[in-house]
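Deliverable D4.2, example record:
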Amino acid sequence: MHVLNGEANGLVPDDDGPQLVEPGVWRIPLPLPFALREANVYLIGGADEWVCVDSGLGTPEGDAALRAGLERAGITVERITTLVLTHAHPDHIGLAGLLHAVSGAPIHMLAAEAERLFRVWGDPDLTALTRADAFLAANGMPTADVALIDRANRSVRRAIHLPPEDAISPLADDEHIRLAGMDYRAIWTPGHSDYHLCLLREDGLFIAGDHILPRITPNIGLYPDARPNPLQDYLDALARVRDLPVRLALPGHGLPFADLAGRVDALRAHHAERAAQTLALLAAAPAGTDAYQLAVDLFEGRLRTPDDHRFAVAETLAHLEALRAQGQVERSEHAGHFLYAATAAAAVAIDHSY
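Output generated by the structure prediction step:
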């Protein structure tokens, strides 16, 4: 949802609006009240059917932008026959309940992501988010920042309009589904979320969601109650899609792009560089340090808000846990506070690399 590296400027033009990507495919950018200013909704038509991919955040501005985009494409909400949700983050699910209520369209997403959708955002007490707050605090985030993040999360919850659970028609990995007259293959691509969905159409159109973005790095973060090694999940999922016969990718943020393999390679290189930076910082702190301080050091003054810090800490933890799984990092706990340090073998390797 957010940009941690200051690349939001120029991600999309200031006058961006509904775009006919190719016959039968519309990109409708919806505004976000975050550093990353827009999220894409795609409208894909054919065989007298209309598929809506993702739904933006459910603010009045988002609702108005979506309806204006549909009008530009020449349809109304009532004509949407299917809704696909790539993952259960607020900027992709916010209007799903309202779209379903008007259109009656079934909603497709991976089954485990649907379970998370209702467990996290359907809980009036937001228990999962409270657990995430405690997790951030245990990894060094200041209490005042945690409180601000909690307040922001509860505000975001008001912009999520959930559909009824029986509206979900779950998909399985590698399942084929016919939408708007064409065949799509469902592909499980964990990392940005545990059960993120991509779809490959028979003609090479690739619905990428937030798995691969054209100009920024998707946030790959570790959270409680999630898969234990999201970065390794992500790298494996990148390898899975790199060589697919894709002619055009439709990302969740930014503009459609053609060179999927080149973008995958750039993302891999970014994470290899970040892992090396993380190990170097740990080598300079032999007594250990927490993920919050590491994030501050890694992002070097680019973290402006508590939300920026949240995503940076989660991303740093994903790298730390991947390195821990490789035996290069160890973790210790001191009175509920987690510290990470390079293992002796990793420290020697880093020293010999200079």
